[in-house]
């Protein structure tokens, strides 16, 4: 059944991209497909973690989705579970079952894709929020360390603008879609710091040279009983590091497409009512 669901979604998506979009521009796809199809990576159990012609479910991403948004009834639960989506319960922290399941998929050499902000942006700004620290857990605790590949998506807000008239579930035609696959991000310094912290939890974690807003980093706020300050410190800096690389990919993509410097503008109109 998962294969049937995945093939149906893939066929409908291809039809929409070919017939329903104004344009579809893709950069870096060949290099990314080589990573996905690399038999050596899969044989070594090295997963593929991405932050935005597949017919074989083994070559289709696993993803994480919010329980209150896409698992809200029996039909949605059936569809998304067969579509290789793991259910995340907001507010249950980074040690919940879905992240454990994602770690298991990575250990099998599977591809796990996620949206690291954990947020549905209905504003007009493309500025990224803080990345959820659960992303860092997937990188640090997976063994072996997965390849972490940023993917920049543009134009999907035009497919489902907010607000929109009925039928709200139907994708809107005429979107200008852009997808850019980046190079794998170097996470070795953070993995090394994590291993050192595990060996000696009472030793202070060294600072990292990461560009990030101060509010995105851990500053000693209270943690759950199953967490630790040293680990939270490493997670916050790694999440900021990944955010920086994705933002840089976005800026480079906009520049290469002639869209200028700075942020773009989304198609949403939050001041209007559908």
How would you summarize the topology of this molecule?
Elements lengths: L1 H19 E7 L1 H9 L1 H5 L4 E4 L10 E5 H4 L3 H9 L2 E4 L8 H11 L3 E3 L20 H8 L5 E8 L1 H4 L15 E7 L6 H12 L29 H28 L18
Parallel strand pairs: 1-7, 2-5, 2-6, 3-4, 3-5
Antiparallel strand pairs: 6-7
Helix pairs in contact: 6-7, 7-10, 9-10
How many domain units? 1
Strands of the biggest beta sheet: in what spatial order?
1-7-6-2-5-3-4
Instruction: Please tally the helical runs, counting DSSP H or I stretches of 4 or more residues.
Output: 10
Low-confidence stretches: none
What is the CATH C-level name?
Alpha Beta
Number of strands: 7
Strand residue content: 5-15%
Helix percentage: 25-40%
Sum up the overall morphology in one term.
globular
Q: Would you give the CATH topology?
A: Glycerol-3-phosphate (1)-acyltransferase
